């Protein structure tokens, strides 16, 4: 069987999944902050390709065209396609949503379908495996909420703007989201403490303090460029409320971190309720969970009183790769889908 690599080019990370002999045999994620230049993508590509061995086919999806290094999304699609085609060769196909895989030469023609289509790739795999369910994929920056019914993707939005309005895209991520974008105030010592509109700390700091994530999920520098210790995260978190870490106990700062996590969960919960209110799926249809934010999404499933399917359950993979496969759902989907 053909060894093929699925690629997901994000604005902050490059992910890849290798399919061979009917299963996923490798998953990789490398930091690739496109806003700092395409050389970061080149480095990430080199690092991953050094580990994959020979590959007969490459399949690509992207959200990185949104990076502000590009003047607009069309230019982003064009430049990323050119970069990947140059590195990966003629055996590259670009994912264009409902149009499926297209050759790089047609990426510009279908740019509106190519851009930010990684959610559609993940949902396509879900739809090929399950009759119905709600795919919820929470990555480092955003959360996708996509219903599947009758083995079909039931989105009502496709572009980012349409999906934001429909509740199908929420700009809340498990690690990179700035705390000022999560809540206007949080409970602290019996009052609602206002949150500063400054990029002093991110959700990675909050998750770290409540012990809710794997450190390998946090591949970007901290907000202040300092280390990622508990003490440094407390200092960054305290600064969001106009305090120093010594102004309260570590337990109090952990409670504040928990309040931010709760506020973020409520925003995703509200979006999920908006999508579910359309009645696309039955009351007992499960949530299919993907992304680094699955610890938070399990709490969402409990609140919605629905069962859980891990994304890795839908793509045959080695047991040691289950966590990585669920974190890199679009890349895994592209590698696994039979076309």
Polypeptide structure, described:
The protein has a six-stranded mixed beta sheet. Strands 7, 8, 9, 10, 13 and 14 form a six-stranded mixed beta sheet that branches. The longest helix has 27 residues, at 250-276. It has helices at 39-52, 73-88, 111-114, 118-129, 160-166, 203-210, 230-240, 250-276, 294-304, 322-327, 329-336; strands at 4-9, 13-20, 23-31, 57-62, 92-95, 101-102, 132-138, 143-149, 152-153, 169-170, 185-188, 191-194, 287-290, 308-310. 49% of the residues are buried. The mean pLDDT is 96. The protein has 339 residues and is an alpha/beta fold. A hairpin with a 5-residue loop joins strand 5 (92-95) and strand 6.
Distance between the termini: 13 Å
Major sheet: size, sense and barrel closure?
A: 6 strands, mixed
Mean pLDDT: 96
Structural class: alpha/beta
How do the SSEs run, as a string of H and E?
A: EEEHEHEEHHEEEHEEEHHHEHEHH
Strand content: 15-25%
Over all CA atoms, what is the radius of gyration? 20 Å
Low-confidence stretches: none
Strand order, sheet with most strands = 3-2-1-4-5-6
Number of strands: 14
Total helices: the number is 11
Overall, the morphology is globular
Helical fraction equals 25-40%
């Amino acid at each position: 069987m053909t060894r093929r690599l699925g690629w997901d080019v994000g604005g902050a990370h490059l992910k890849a999944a290798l399919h061979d002999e009917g299963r996923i045999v490798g998953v990789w994620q490398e930091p690739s902050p496109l806003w700092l230049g395409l050389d970061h993508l080149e480095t990430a590509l080199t690092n991953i390709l050094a580990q994959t061995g020979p590959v007969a086919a490459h399949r690509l999806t992207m959200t990185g065209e949104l990076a502000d290094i590009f003047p607009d999304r069309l230019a982003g699609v064009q430049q990323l396609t050119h970069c990947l085609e140059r590195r990966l060769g003629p055996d590259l196909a670009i994912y264009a949503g409902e149009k499926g895989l297209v050759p790089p030469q047609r990426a510009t023609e279908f740019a509106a379908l190519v851009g930010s289509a990684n959610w559609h790739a993940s949902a396509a795999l879900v739809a090929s495996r399950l009759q119905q369910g709600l795919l919820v994929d929470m990555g480092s920056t955003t959360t996708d909420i996509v219903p599947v019914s009758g083995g079909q993707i039931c989105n009502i939005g496709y572009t980012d703007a349409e999906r934001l309005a429909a509740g199908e895209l929420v700009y809340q991520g498990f690690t990179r989201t700035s705390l000022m974008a999560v809540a206007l105030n949080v409970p602290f010592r019996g009052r609602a403490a206002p949150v500063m509109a400054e990029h002093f700390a991110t959700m990675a700091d909050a998750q770290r303090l409540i012990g809710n994530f794997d450190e390998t999920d946090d591949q970007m520098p901290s907000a202040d460029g300092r280390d990622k210790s508990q003490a440094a995260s407390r200092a960054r978190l305290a600064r969001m409320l106009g305090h120093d870490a010594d102004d309260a106990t570590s337990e109090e700062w952990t409670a504040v971190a928990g309040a931010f996590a709760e506020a973020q969960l409520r925003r995703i919960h509200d979006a999920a309720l908006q999508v579910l209110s359309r009645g696309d799926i039955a009351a007992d249809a499960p949530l299919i969970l993907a992304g680094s934010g699955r610890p938070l999404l399990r709490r969402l499933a409990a609140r919605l009183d629905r069962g859980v399917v891990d994304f890795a359950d839908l793509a045959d993979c080695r047991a040691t790769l289950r966590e990585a496969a669920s974190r890199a759902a679009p890349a895994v989907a592209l590698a696994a889908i039979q076309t």
